[in-house]
Amino acid sequence: xxxxxxxxxxxxxxxxxxxxxxxxxxxxxxxxxxxxxxxxxxxxxxxxxxxxxxxxxxxxxxxxxxxxxxxxxxxxxxxxxxxxxxxxxxxxxxxxxxxxxxxxxxxxxxxxxxxxxxxxxx
Amino acid sequence: xxxxxxxxxxxxxxxxxxxxxxxxxxxxxxxxxxxxxxxxxxxxxxxxxxxxxxxxxxxxxxxxxxxxxxxxxxxxxxxxxxxxxxxxxxxxxxxxxxxxxxxxxxxxxxx
Lengths: 122, 111
Hints:
The structure holds two protein chains of two kinds.
Chain A: E1 3-7, E2 11-12, E3 18-25, E4 35-41, E5 48-54, E6 59-61, E7 69-74, E8 79-84, E9 93-101, E10 108-112, E11 116-120
Parallel strand pairs in A: 2-11
Antiparallel strand pairs in A: 1-3, 3-8, 4-5, 4-9, 5-6, 7-8, 9-10, 9-11
Chain B: E1 9-12, E2 18-23, E3 36-40, E4 47-50, E5 64-69, E6 72-77, E7 86-94, E8 99-102, E9 106-110
Parallel strand pairs in B: 1-9
Antiparallel strand pairs in B: 2-6, 3-4, 3-7, 5-6, 7-8, 7-9
């Protein structure tokens, strides 16, 4: 059974750094073709992908936030960590981690965490 | 402004059929990338409903079906039920942004 769960602070101040952890079970990020992605959703708005990490430590970031994001993994703990620097109120959103499945022209997200709401406010 | 365009809302009576469109361009759907659909019930995480344009994961009723043509895709829901009331998102990949793109979401109301 595949599960993912996000954890991290519910409230951060502007200009602070956000660190979120995705703890998963039911698969291993050391297995070939396994990938995990972070996606966020501002209140009442659409979904936006942020960063992806693969089994071989390949990493990709969304262009608009590339300079502020870092994704990493701890295979022994079954965790993926996302850091986002210089937080702003517009970054207020529910942050999800999800597993990526499919093939190169057809990647989709088959299991999602419950999400964690992060509010940026002084 | 989302890269993929969906109607903000659709509605239908119980038992009816509704469709939700997802319009893209030559850099995403038209480039051959598959379209996937997610259902997001209030206060919950999205759940994959259709993957690879037309495939249903196990457990998804066959009332849900997907199609793709050219630069667009559609999600059809037949035999509408009250439990189908949710937000629906389409998703694909885009060459221009070198990443995954989502539609703006469509709120389905069961009258």
